[in-house]
Design brief:
Layout lengths: L15 E5 L4 H12 L3 E6 L4 H8 L3 E4 L12 E4 L8 H9 L2 E4 H9 L3 E6 L4 H14 L5 E8 L4 E4 L5 E5 L14 E4 L7 H4 L2 H13 L4 E5 L3 H7 L7 E5 L6 E7 L5 E6 L2 E6 L5 H16 L4 H9 L9 E6 L2 E6 L4 H14 L5 E5 L4 H18 L2 E4 L15 H5 L8 E3 L3 H11 L5 E5 L8 H14 L1
Parallel strand pairs: 1-2, 1-4, 2-3, 4-5, 6-9, 6-10, 7-9, 10-11, 11-12, 12-13, 17-21, 18-19, 18-21, 19-20
Antiparallel strand pairs: 7-8, 13-14, 14-15, 16-17
InterPro entries: Mur-like_cat_sf, Mur_ligase_C, Mur_ligase_C_dom_sf, Mur_ligase_cen, Mur_ligase_N, MurCDEF_pg_biosynth, UDP-N-AcMur_Ala_ligase_MurC
Subcellular location: Cytoplasm
EC number: 6.3.2.8
Length: 468
């Protein structure tokens, strides 16, 4: 893993940029924005993907696989993520040539260029909240530039250029890079301690969020309900703090949440109340909507039109996304990779599955998080899913840790009959098909590549039907 060095200079002018790991949702969005600025873009990723093909169609030069030969002579800036290894041949050659080598957060900083910035941060809900703000602003007639961590369903992209001075981003707390930006309005969805491999302690994690909030130029919008957010709020010295949530004293208060289908709720602000309904399920999305509305109010919009605009949000890719139905079994995918997110995703699925059962296919993400939170993962999976199929750990940027596998999570279940550890993906797909029945929901969970098992699950379900 390469930790970002935010002290490195960011070039004033960029004419040709090469992205190492260009296929990721965040990196592909940045690359798209650089293309829109008229900058020559090239990049590589370890596997082919839809994102690579789309960038190639827009004029980028893309490569499958990392090789020093991918770095053209005219490149002046190389953009990387923390997920690559220091031995990456393109990274090594860029250093040898003396090129500007910057982290993706610095590449985003260059794009922002001093515009009025809304930064969305938090352990969970960032991508959804950012999507809600962006789509609502467009509905209200404002066209911000934006860079999100995931594809916004109704726009079909994770980034886009606008003609307004406003810039909206999903800001990443995992490596401290959210502190780089000159934020005008900070939205903090929650502060559930995570990424302690970077921060070291929970107190350091909280302190970073407090600094992020206190440095906002105009306002801080922060959850009134989340315990971590409450700890951060206690450290704030900012003169303009707007809270949102179910707490009685919240400035934008959520009440009357109904989750049996598309979530409905009421929002109250300064004595005015508006009923709302979203096309996406889950109580957590009612809370996300309250945060988005609070940001819109801070930007000068009125409550009623702000709520109506947020209601149009259709979701983001890899957030409770339906991929197919086979033999009456619906197969979904969700990005959830933290116990709190897993609980929220499964609770949302529970609210709409009716008499069907929930079968979770969980891929733990990173060895450090799995080692730290395997008991919590087991607890929420056992509580919210009827059955769990446990895959092995997706290591991402980390080296394997002896004894830290998916079996560590499955062994922590109180009732072993509720979980089945199957490291082989084909066997996992076949097993899932064998236990699923009409009306059930299968939902893959994780921010690695677990979604790639979905075609195998659908094929296994089809075989079950053919053999019946």
């Amino acid at each position: 893993m390469i930790r970002p060095d935010l002290s490195l200079p960011i070039p004033d002018d960029i004419t040709a940029a090469h992205f190492i790991g260009i296929g990721g949702s965040g990196m592909s969005g940045l690359a798209r924005m650089y293309l829109e600025r008229g900058i020559r873009v090239s990049g590589s990723d370890r596997a082919d993907s839809k994102a690579l093909r789309e960038l190639a169609a827009l004029g980028a030069t893309v490569y499958v696989g990392h090789d020093a030969a991918n770095l053209a002579d005219d490149v002046d800036t190389v953009v990387h993520t923390g997920a690559i290894w220091p031995e990456n041949p393109e990274f090594v050659l860029a250093k040898e040539r003396g090129l500007h080598v910057i982290h993706r957060s610095q590449a985003l900083y260059w794009l922002i260029g001093g515009r009025r910035l809304v930064s969305v941060a938090g352990a969970h809900g960032k991508t959804t909240s950012t999507g809600m703000i962006v789509t609502a602003l467009r509905d209200l007639g404002v066209r911000p530039t934006f860079v999100n961590g995931g594809v916004i369903a109704q726009l079909g992209v994770s980034s886009g250029s606008g003609d307004d001075d406003l810039f909206v981003i999903e800001a990443d707390e995992s490596d401290g890079t959210f502190l780089l930006y000159d934020t005008s309005i900070a939205l903090i969805t929650n502060v559930d301690p995570d990424h302690l491999d970077h921060w070291g302690t929970r107190d350091a994690f909280y302190a970073a969020f407090a600094r992020f909030a206190n440095e906002a130029r105009e306002a801080v919008v922060i959850s009134s309900d989340d315990a971590g957010a409450q700890r951060v709020t206690a450290q704030l010295t900012h003169p303009n703090v707007v809270t949102f949530g179910e707490a009685e004293g919240a400035a934008v208060r959520v009440t009357d949440i109904v989750t049996d289908g598309p979530v409905s709720f009421r929002l109250t602000h300064e004595g005015a109340t508006v009923d709302a309904q979203l096309p996406v399920p889950g109580a957590h999305n009612a809370i996300n909507a309250a945060g988005a509305v609070a940001v819109l109010l801070t930007l000068g919009h009125d409550l009623e039109p702000a709520v109506r605009a947020v209601e149009g949000f259709a979701g983001t890719v890899r957030r409770f996304e339906l991929h197919g139905v086979e033999r009456g079994v619906s197969v979904f995918d969700d990005y959830a990779h933290h116990p709190t997110e897993v609980a929220a995703a499964l609770a949302a699925a529970r609210s709409v599955v009716g008499d069907g059962r929930l079968i979770a296919i969980q891929q733990p993400h990173t060895y450090s998080r799995t080692q730290e939170m395997y008991r919590e993962f087991a607890e929420v999976l056992e509580q919210y899913a009827d059955h769990t199929v446990m895959l092995d750990v997706y290591g991402a940027r980390e080296d394997p840790v002896p004894g830290v596998t998916g079996e560590l999570v499955s062994d922590a279940f109180a009732d072993p009959s509720h979980v089945h550890y199957v490291p082989d993906w084909q066997k996992a797909a076949d097993y899932t098909a064998s236990v699923a029945r009409e009306g059930d929901y299968v939902i893959t969970l994780g921010c690695g590549n677990v979604y790639l098992i979905i075609p195998q699950v659908l094929e296994a379900l089809a075989r079950e039907r053919a053999e019946a």
